[in-house]
Amino acid sequence: MNSIESTIQKQKTLFKAGKTMTHTFRAHQLQRLRQMLKRHETDIYEALKQDLNKSSYEVLLTELGYLYNEIDETLHHLQSWMSPEKVKSPTSHKGAKSMIYKQPYGVSLIISPWNYPLQLALAPLIGAIAGGNTAVIKPSEFTSHTSQLLESMIQETFEDQYITVFQGEKDVSEALLEQPFDYIFFTGSTQVGKIVMEKASKQLIPVTLELGGKSPVIVDEDAKIQLAARRIAWGKFMNAGQTCVAPDYALVHRNVKDQLIEALKTEIETMYSANPIQNEDYTKIVNDRHFERLSNYLTEGRILYGGQKDQASHKFNPTIVDDIDWQSKVMQDEIFGPILPVISFDYLEEVVDHVEQARNPLALYYFSENSKKQDWVIKNLSFGGGCINDTIMHLANPHLPFGGVGTSGIGSYHGVHSFETFTHHKSVVKQTTKFDLSFRYPHSKIAEKVFNKLFNK
């Protein structure tokens, strides 16, 4: 654990020396990060195949492609993001200039999960670099091949006094959380997020928590059912459902429930074959513990489709279940796997009570052709972000902040929002010395009259 302390001290020394402050330095490091990914593309594909059996399609779409786009977007706009921002000054500040400066926090800790082990480690790092911080990354021990590759790539690309990786299990995370970091960025479960926030609070370290929750997909009776089924199947069963914003459960209008289920079956087989367990490109469940957890969910309710699984390969077929309620095991926690419970509703207003059962989900998806109903859902339901007539795609827009609310997270990132997450917006008034407004001082005879004019317009 001494190496953790010494590394953090080295990073603090580097940061205090001001090396990370210039646009030239930050842009160069982002370019090196991009070159690192390009240089190791083959290794990345292989590591993710070993850890999660990810297909090349999913690696490119959800890991590498996303990172390339994020780096390019950041490089294109970084100079303007870094520039001090001039804002208006009130009449009481006559002669002054009011500015917002973007100040890096310092030494940041990034704790990343196993489900997108490359993307969710490096996407926050892009923001940390752009913001002028140094970084320590703690990747998941559950995806050991990708974590080892991540450490090797970072070691050969960056000095450890700037960016470094610490691998290990729970004890390493606990040791890191005892250190005097200037910022902590955590992606993972709500349960662990609470621990991270508690540890950070003892040192008053600011945090971003990217958590999860039970994200609903709502299908109304006027939805285009076949299209809805295609987009739901894609969003739900990508990465075998091990996605924090995957549709967790479906609320479906009773009039179209049977139609949607039949359409989902068709779309699943089109995407993954009639038996995905035999599909070499179908993602596996990460480990035995998660496989058993998912298996246990199928002891209740009625399986409408799927349910087949293979312990040896950790493959778990896309599964649709019915006859469940909020007391069922599958509805107690975020599923994080290829199981889709379906619940019927008769009136749109009913969905409020369902969503409130697991309030503030990270994402919400609504399928309907009625714009008034779409607006009603957006205004009346609390969620981190989402889509109308689609799933997942809000993540792919670098101009939209991604994050949760309440139990699904604190803070946001992606694009400029990553830069803003890793910078403090420092407010400065540059006051003139050419004159001095006497009414601001207590001995002024006209002060009260002037203030009344200023404040009682």
From TrEMBL:
UniProt cross-references to Pfam families, sorted A to Z: Aldedh
Keywords: Oxidoreductase
Keyword Electron transport belongs to the record: no
Active site, UniProt feature: E210
Superkingdom of the source species: Bacteria
Entry's family note: Belongs to the aldehyde dehydrogenase family.
Annotated protein name in UniProt: Aldehyde dehydrogenase
Organism listed in the record: Alkalibacillus salilacus
Lineage start: Bacteria, Bacillati, Bacillota, Bacilli, Bacillales
